[in-house]
């Protein structure tokens, strides 16, 4: 009786150990989230009520393997006011331990931008504060939110 119990316990212990090693290995190869930061903005054109901008974002890959960015949706606020929003649906591959600069088209409200500039001159400040936020869809990681604050370069 004791011998048959031992014979059953050994395969179960081995199976448990195998599963545990597999889970630990899987946890060690889960990719880290990319880091997204604001690099710059350029005016691409404007109409009566809106402006088209090129927003430059740096996407840094902290991993030892490339990351596939499937989509990116973002909004930019200037001095706590809506400034621009846009998205990228074209896939981008970010090399391992490197970064890619994305130039994304965005649309902003021209009236708000002019009010921000007037306020900046009135307060005699050279730089405006920004908040960049949104989501990035990464192959193998799913949809990841991001939120970054700083001063316009």
What key attributes describe this structure?
single chain; alpha+beta; eight-stranded antiparallel β-sheet; 8 strands; elongated
Instruction: Determine the N-to-C terminus distance.
Output: 77 Å
Rg on CA atoms, Å: 24 Å
SS strand fraction = over 45%
How are helices and strands ordered from N to C? HEEEEEEHEE
Mean pLDDT: 82
Spatial shape? elongated
What would your notes on this structure say?
With 153 residues, the chain is α+β, with helices and mostly antiparallel strands. The chain contains 2 helices and 8 strands, in the order H-E-E-E-E-E-E-H-E-E. The protein has helices at residues 2-28, 110-122, and strands at 35-46, 50-60, 67-78, 81-88, 92-94, 99-109, 129-138, 142-151. A hairpin with a 2-residue loop joins strand 3 (67-78) and strand 4 (81-88). The protein starts with a helix and ends with a strand.
How do the strands and helices of this protein lay out in sequence?
Layout: H1 2-28, E1 35-46, E2 50-60, E3 67-78, E4 81-88, E5 92-94, E6 99-109, H2 110-122, E7 129-138, E8 142-151
Short description:
The protein has 153 residues and is of the alpha+beta class. The protein has helices at residues 2-28, 110-122, and strands spanning 35-46, 50-60, 67-78, 81-88, 92-94, 99-109, 129-138, 142-151.
């Amino acid at each position: 009786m004791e011998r048959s119990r031992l014979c059953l316990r050994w395969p179960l212990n081995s199976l448990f150990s195998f599963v545990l090693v597999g889970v630990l290995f899987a946890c060690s190869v889960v990719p880290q989230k990319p880091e997204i930061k604001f690099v710059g903005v350029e005016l691409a054109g404007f109409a009566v009520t809106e402006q088209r901008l090129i927003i430059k974002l740096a996407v840094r890959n902290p991993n030892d393997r490339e990351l596939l960015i499937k989509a990116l949706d973002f909004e930019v606020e200037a001095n706590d006011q809506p400034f621009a929003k846009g998205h990228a649906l074209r896939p981008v591959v970010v090399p391992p331990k490197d970064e890619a600069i994305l130039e994304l088209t965005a649309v902003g409200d021209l009236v708000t931008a002019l009010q921000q500039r007037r306020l900046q001159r009135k307060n005699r400040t050279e730089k405006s504060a920004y908040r960049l936020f949104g989501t990035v869809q990464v192959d193998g990681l799913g949809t990841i939110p991001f939120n970054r604050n700083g001063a316009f370069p």
